Amino acid sequence: MRARIRGYAVLLYGGLTMVLFFLVSLPVMIVTGSGDFPIWLARFAWAPSALWVAGTRVEERDRPNLPDGPLIFASNHESALDIWVLLSIVPRSIRFVAKQELFRIPIFGTYMRLGGHIPVDRGHHARAVASLRRAGEAVRGGISLIVFPEGTRSLDGRVQPFKKGPFVVAMEAGVPVVPVAISGTGLITPKKVIAVTPGTARVAFGEPVDPRTFPDKNALLTEVRRRVIALHRTMGGAGGDETRAIAAAGVEGAGA
């Protein structure tokens, strides 16, 4: 019962503060034409406060030295909390590549669009490809991305097969991919349940992977996923099946 009450409290807090931060950020975004200010607010105010309400402590492993310039952070996805967790610790002004459905949510969707986040319509191949091209242009322009290559949250805590889309972006943009593993958030708030149990979210960053050293997107995907699984296991996570790295054929994309 307490977990459900906290779950609704987190949901309410997240929604109300999203509206507040949107209203605060909107004039700045309109004047500057940039989403950097709302990302700054999210990193230093929204995400930490929401995690506090959720009773979630973030424990980060030693972070490798990251090169200057844009990066693509490729993370497994256990819980809706993962977005707040990564916003609070990723050392960049970042944007998300996320499923189109999130951009249809009132206020939140407008915030995402104005902030420069990139929607992917996973139900339509041509639009999905166009979205990935826009993501590549954003990265080449200096923007770092956070992607969840599984495409959705894991039901069992294991790292699922990855979609190819984010790695197409990495190959075309020629920027390093940083493997990221998150462990513990699936226990704090499971998928399809509005309930939050206080706990610890563990995060580990791997060494950046240079896409220029791989022959194609499949080889890059396989190596990044292998590293995510290895990092996941070092934090007590279940890892994943390394024999099936690539998600079944279908519309490409990366969704939160």
From TrEMBL:
Family: Belongs to the 1-acyl-sn-glycerol-3-phosphate acyltransferase family.
Catalysed conversion reaction: a 1-acyl-sn-glycero-3-phosphate + an acyl-CoA = a 1,2-diacyl-sn-glycero-3-phosphate + CoA
Highest taxon in the source lineage: Bacteria
Pfam families in the record: Acyltransferase
Catalytic activity, EC: 2.3.1.51
Domain Phospholipid/glycerol acyltransferase positions: 71-185
TM stretches of this protein: 7-31
Name of the protein this chain belongs to: 1-acyl-sn-glycerol-3-phosphate acyltransferase
Keywords for the protein's UniProt record, in alphabetical order: Acyltransferase, Lipid biosynthesis, Lipid metabolism, Membrane, Phospholipid biosynthesis, Phospholipid metabolism, Transferase, Transmembrane, Transmembrane helix
Annotated metabolic or biological route of this protein: Lipid metabolism; Phospholipid metabolism; CDP-diacylglycerol biosynthesis; CDP-diacylglycerol from sn-glycerol 3-phosphate: step 2/3
Record remark: domains: The HXXXXD motif is essential for acyltransferase activity and may constitute the binding site for the phosphate moiety of the glycerol-3-phosphate.
